[in-house]
Write a structure and sequence with these properties.
571 residues; 53% helix; Rossmann fold; alpha/beta; single chain
Length: 571
């Protein structure tokens, strides 16, 4: 329900704050006073197209804020939750339009696109007017309206569930058929690929294991080669190269000649320290040779094992490249190809089972949809009678309204059933019934919409309805009938109506008067919430014109007699 509307710098409105209550609120005023500006402002907050001409002269931007009480309508809550806009005490729609025509939109103070603002606005307010594209005139809305009027929700839910089961069964059948067809086309290749992969027998994690083992064996081989090279230097096989041990011994023998004649001890030899060092070097060299020999004996070097690891690793990687997958995916690929190949042998039985499942699902959908169709047919007959009863008082006594639910071809079936729900009208005798928007004139269509809203208001998809001059071109008893029906609709949803009819204005639970005030060189639109006495004067003006007579006031009293006092609106 709309609770407040704040307008800043829109055309002739500089600053305006309105609050609204439930029931029927009427807006009156002389032609040109600015009632359309109020509706345009509300439309702006609901996502209507903006333009720079809406900005009041001398202002840089215009803004409109519409506040709504938290809605119990599930579609509104779902959209807000979908976009993370929930958790507020109220729903606030705001629109700002700058002098250059650009606009910004907000929902609960979160910036949003205008498209989302329009989507949420359409779920909160519906505008009915001679020049609006009314939802009731849209054939796509008729099934939902008929269901809300008199079809059990359980029937619709059963159809939606049966539809999903049927769709899933058909999808599984199509996939199985496609898989078998593909397998048949590729049978030779499949058999070759499965044989090749089965021979290769890839295992999960094998590539990583082989790569690690290959790296270890390569490191061991390089280590063994280094040790062997060192040993070769210590013990050369080339006889022309005596090696370091022989060189040390030769050096020691040469130094022994320096000993005094007849003495061989190192202590008496001036080169004794050098000889001792050579002896130690020879011992260290022998120890190094022993250690290196032991290391090379302990080295884990197996050229054949390295070759086998590399061959296995390269074969796995080549198979992966061939099939366009990573090595870790080869086991899964083998399983998939083997399953496709096996499907050729078991495919007939599988297809037969899936075909039976799809047939059973279709039967289930047909049963649920047929039950829904029967309920819709009954509801259409009741709706047709109910709307027809509302037409004569609205000066549509020659009009005939038709509601039908016919079964569509199977291509048109869906989660909403298999029916085409249509609302048609013939406004003159002998005229063939046709779509609402094409057959009825503007005034007729507005009154027809009102008649339907009276019947459908309990199941209304939106909490607030706005009627723009639904009483245009009528008066007297017809206008009184319009007012009565607007009041009846307002028992279920909030209704705002712009009217020039005193009979309609008198039925309002709240009454707003729109006027233009001129001061100096500036004109501004004002809105006043009328007390009962002020309402009497306004309705008398609507009856009599500029000169209000006592008779007009008496007639206004007659219209107001028995009406509820205006509810508290703040301006």
């Amino acid at each position: 329900m709309l609770t407040a509307l704040s307008i800043r710098d829109v055309v002739l409105i500089e600053r305006l704050d309105l609050t609204f209550g439930p029931g029927l609120t009427v807006l009156t005023g002389e032609t040109g006073a600015g009632k359309s500006i109020l509706l345009d402002s509300l439309g702006l907050a609901l996502g209507a197209r903006s333009e720079s001409g809406l900005v009041r002269p001398a202002a840089e931007q215009a803004s409109v804020t519409a506040c709504f009480a938290p809605s119990a309508y599930p579609m509104v809550a779902a959209v807000l939750e979908e976009h993370g806009l929930t958790g507020e005490d109220e729903i606030v729609l705001r629109r700002i339009v700058t002098r250059d025509g650009r606009s910004r939109a907000f929902v609960n103070d979160h910036p949003v696109g205008v498209g989302l603002l329009r989507r949420i606005g359409a779920l909160l307010v519906e505008v009915q007017g001679q020049h609006e594209q009314m939802s009731l005139a849209d054939p796509a809305s008729h099934a939902g309206l008929l269901d809300a009027f008199g079809v059990a929700a359980s029937l619709r839910s059963a159809v939606a569930k049966a539809w999903l089961v049927w769709r899933d069964a058909l999808s599984a059948l199509d996939k199985a058929r496609d898989a078998i067809a593909a397998a048949e086309r590729d049978e030779d290749w499949l058999r070759h690929a499965v044989d090749e992969l089965a021979t290769l027998a890839p295992r999960l994690g094998e590539e990583e294991t082989l790569a690690t083992e290959r790296q270890r064996l390569q490191q061991n081989e390089r280590r063994a080669e280094a040790i062997a090279a060192a040993l070769a230097e210590l013990t050369p096989k080339d006889r022309r190269n005596s090696g370091p041990a022989s060189s040390l011994r030769s050096a020691a023998r040469s130094l022994q000649r320096l000993a005094p004649s007849g003495q061989t001890g190192a202590a008496d030899n001036p080169a004794g320290p050098a000889m001792a060092a050579l002896e130690r070097a020879e011992e260290a060299l022998a120890e190094a040779e022993t250690l290196l020999t032991r290391l090379i004996a302990d080295a884990d070097v197996d050229p054949r094992l390295l070759e086998q690891s590399e061959e296995r690793l390269f074969a796995l990687r080549a198979a992966g490249r061939k099939h366009g997958v990573g090595v870790p995916d080869l086991p899964g690929l083998l399983d998939t190809l083997a399953a496709r190949l096996a499907a050729l042998e078991t495919g007939s039985a599988e297809i037969a089972a899936l075909e039976q499942a799809a047939s059973d699902a279709r039967d289930g959908y047909m049963a649920a949809a047929t039950a829904l169709s029967g309920a819709r047919t009954d509801a259409a007959a009741k709706l047709q009678k109910a709307v027809t009863r509302e037409l004569p008082p609205l000066r549509l006594d020659k009009a005939r309204f038709f509601a039908s639910a016919g079964v569509l071809p199977e291509a048109g079936w869906g989660a909403n059933g298999m029916d085409q729900v249509r609302f048609l009208i013939a406004t003159n005798p002998g005229q063939d019934p046709g779509p609402l928007a094409r057959v009825a004139s503007g005034g007729e269509l507005s009154r027809l919409m009102l008649a339907m809203k009276v019947v459908l208001s309990a199941g209304s998809a939106v909490p607030t309805l706005v009627f723009d001059e639904v009483d245009s071109g009528i008066g007297g008893a017809t206008a009184a009938a319009v007012g009565d029906r607007l009041a009846r609709v307002a028992e279920d949803v909030q209704v705002l109506v712009v009217t020039h009819s005193p009979q309609v204005a008198a039925r309002g639970a709240a009454h707003l008067r729109v006027a233009k005030a001129a001061s100096r060189d500036r004109t501004a639109t004002t809105v006043d919430c009328l007390t009962r006495d002020a309402r009497r004067e306004e309705i008398a003006r609507m009856l009599a014109g500029e000169t209000i007579s006592d008779a007009a006031r008496a007639a206004a009293d007659d219209l107001l007699r028995g009406q509820k006092p205006p509810q508290g609106l703040l301006v």
